[in-house]
Amino acid sequence: AGSKLREIFDKINNLLSGKSVQSGGRAVSVTQHPQALDFVFYKLAEKFVRQGEEEVASHHDAAFPIAVVASGIWEIHPRVGDLFLAHLHKKCPYSVPFYPALKEGTSMEEYQRILGYQVKDSMVEEQDNFLKRMSGMIRLYAALIQLRWPYGDQQGTHPHGLSYGWRWLAQMLNMEPLADVTATLLFDFLEVCGNALMKQYRVQFWKVMVLLQEAYVPRIEAITSSGQMGSLMRLKQFVQECVQEKKISLPTGALQPAFWKS
Q1: Confidence tier at 236 by pLDDT (50, 70, 90)
Q2: Domains and CATH numbers, the chain
Q3: Which of 4, 68, 78, 169 is the most exposed place for a label (fewest CB within 10 A)?
Q4: Mind listing the pLDDT tens digit for each residue in 37-83?
Q5: Kind plus residue range of the DSSP H or E element containing 65
Q6: 170 versus 156: which is more confidently predicted?
Q7: From CA 60, how far away is CA 257, in angstroms rounded?
Q8: How would you class 151 by CB atoms within 10 Å of its CB: exposed for 0-12, middle for 13-18, buried for 19 or more?
């Protein structure tokens, strides 16, 4: 509910602003230790990213309430935003976007970690699980760049707005695709913020969508094996329908004005 989200936001904002808040049955304040505020900034940013890879990965609609709180906190406390991006880029290099290359002297296990895989006792996580986590983080990012906390000071610009999403999309299409990963993340990103990008960039956006359909999807297809077709077909169908109908629907779970009255 909107009222519940406001409570959460106020509690986080109060904590970061030096006020005393109740946590675990006791009053805590960042004024209690000289490094407390730095610590809280760091852990909060880390938790936002973790909610992307865990909650949003399992429940796509969760991207919007988490992102709107993160966006509002970022606006008031820019340090959280810097740290959010740092955690996000480390856990999901594709959010830069960046495809890390294997450097000389790097072990295969370390390289898997750099790519974003979870490695435990030399065992690398399943590809499906890896893609699910990356999707969650990209969806959170795609929601965050288009959302603003509705009770904030709307005079200034969004601290990390749609222009960053436009840049991300352009950079993705300038890179050599990776099997499975590229198709999955392009679909996730466009499903969440395609509608917002369409409204903002209009003719330019449709030029990019046609380029994606005619030139980039075939490049993904060329490197995709038969076992990796699912993500490619989903992207292909999505782009085809959007270009044909000249529209991208609002994503499911998007926060409507009525939500804030709940």
Answers
A1: very high
A2: 1-261 (1.25.40.510)
A3: 4
A4: 999 999 999 999 999 999 999 999 999 999 999 999 999 999 999 99
A5: helix 63-76
A6: 170
A7: 20
A8: exposed
pLDDT-based confidence at residue 12 (cuts at 50, 70, 90): very high
CB-based contact 63:56 (threshold 8 Å):
yes
Spacing of C-alpha 125 from chain mean position: 21
Residue given tokens 């409204």 in the structure block: 199
Q: Which structure tokens are listed for 160?
A: 């990390």
Nearest-10 crossing angle of helices 36-51, 63-76: 150
CA quadruple 237, 240, 243, 245: dihedral positive or negative? negative
Residues in the chain: 262
Q: What is the pLDDT of residue 172?
A: 97
Residue 116 to residue 89: CA distance in whole angstroms: 9
Alpha carbons 96 and 78: distance in angstroms, whole number: 19
Question: Cα dist. 119→104, 109, 228 in Å?
Answer: 20, 7, 22
Strand blocks (E) in the chain: 21-23, 26-28, 119-120, 123-124
Cis, bond preceding 97 (omega within 30 deg of 0): yes
Q: What are phi and psi of 103, to 5 degrees?
A: -95, 150
Identify the pLDDT of residue 223. Answer: 96
Three-state secondary structure of 169-200: HHHHHCCCCCCCHHHHHHHHHHHHHHHHHHHH
Counting residues of the chain whose pLDDT is more than 90, the rounded percentage is 95
Paired sense of beta strands 21-23 and 26-28, if any: antiparallel
Average pLDDT, the chain: 96
Instruction: With a cut of 90, say whether residue 153 has pLDDT above it.
Output: no
